[in-house]
User: Fold these one by one.
Assistant:
Number 1:
Amino acid sequence: MKIAVLLLALAASGIAAAQYPTRPINLIVPFAAGGPTDVVARTIGLSMGKSLGVTIVVENKLGAGGTIAANYVAKAAPDGYTIFIHHNGMATATGLYRKLPYDPMKDFEYIGQVADVPMTLLARKDFPANNLQELIKYTKANEDKINLANAGLGAVSHLCGMLFQRALGQKWTTVPFSGTGPAMTALLGGQVDILCDQTTQTIPHIKSEKVRFYGVTTKQRIQALPDAPTLDEQGLKDFEVLVWHGIYAPKGTPPEALNRVNAALRAALKDPLTVAKLKELGAEIVPESKQSPEGLRTWLQAEIDKWVPVIRAAGTFAD
Ligand code: ASP
């Protein structure tokens, strides 16, 4: 009798695994469409959808530096049809907000990491500084007039801007947007002065010289912009911000669904078209060990441990 029950259960889970997914999967993006996180999401989503045999529908849920989307996913039905991509904000929001309505280490399933993306420091095209040293000089003399665009508290553009102001010993006015897609539109329109943003959005604008560009935020120069100096080599010693991405699902999502989405993620990260597109935009596919649930979970915990004390020491909080 017991064996019969076991066989039935096995057959049922086999059927569920064979059937999933039967309809489109929503991939929640915590920032505006057209921005750098959205570009990564749509690029891998297209490829993952092909291997899963269903469309991955990208849904942009905006606000509060990505925390509105994270909270939405934490409370979404754990049925395999809602998945979530987020970056460093999954860790840094823990320090930036006094009280988050979700717990990044308890309310999610971890699927895997995707790619690492450098950031670039930009200004509007007519900003009166040709290089980093001129920018430092000009902003020092005009500190009360400078404004910095970002995607809200919890966004990497916020983190990068905060670290940059701290390195310069300056304090500027910040202008938050629902993502750096709209922030870039404001920069191109000359409505804001400075923006730190991922290469997955900025490279085309840097190449077409529509913005002023002062350097990359990695310790080493990057392949996609080989002539671009790092901020570190220009005197901002140890300045480093690297954006990482993880894919999550609501806690309790069935293991069959998690495994299939993970397999689709791994396949996407080997798909030559996806890899070429991401590379061209400065993104580096993470090694296979990080493409796993455990690789993402341990990384997230390490990032929380690393950033929360830094952020608390800087005294930047939101309620
Ligand atoms: N670059 C953004 C950030 O600062 C988000 C985005 O729009 O992708 O976090």
Number 2:
Amino acid sequence: MLRITVLVSGNGTNLQAVIDGIESGFIQGAEIGLVISSNPNAYSLERAKKHNIKSLVIGKANYPDIKERTKALIDALDEAKTDLVILAGYMSILDSKIIEAYRGRIINVHPSLIPQFCGKGFYGKYVHEAVLASGALETGATVHYVDEGIDTGPIILQEKVPVLEGDTVDTLAARVLKTEHKILKEAVKIMIASLSEKKGDR
Ligand code: GAR
């Protein structure tokens, strides 16, 4: 069994998609060992609790010092014997020490067609606001590896989503989220297959 740690900050519908993917048997050979939230009030923490998944809060509020926060994150990932880290609506930037320690084993879901509408300042609803303001006729969702840049790592999966007439940030975000859930589950499946193979080689 490979072990997944999911990093979250908010509602956690992407976390829920991975939980459902595992519970339905779509994702096999993996379990979520730990959920880490940067935000003590995130609904994601309730979702973890409902499914008996251990959770921790590690964020700016309880670890204001970046070095201590990074150490707490690495210790928690190591202690949970994490094979794969999923950033699922995680609204903080990971320190390069974490990227180094888990290189090739951290993935992120982003609500646009990277390289469009991504990078500094493009997160959550700001992405959809920018898409609507640009007049683009399509947007989408991307799952990619996390490297030292912001939304710059190699793309694993990407899928287009139409922008419809009369769309608001909320209607567009809801349509994109459905695609995020779908490609995140698929990407996790791909990652688990590839990581299991590598683990078997060791
Ligand atoms: C999702 O749309 C996710 O792609 C986005 O925040 C939302 C979280 O929803 N993440 C980012 O913008 C990170 N750059 P969720 O908490 O319901 O999964």
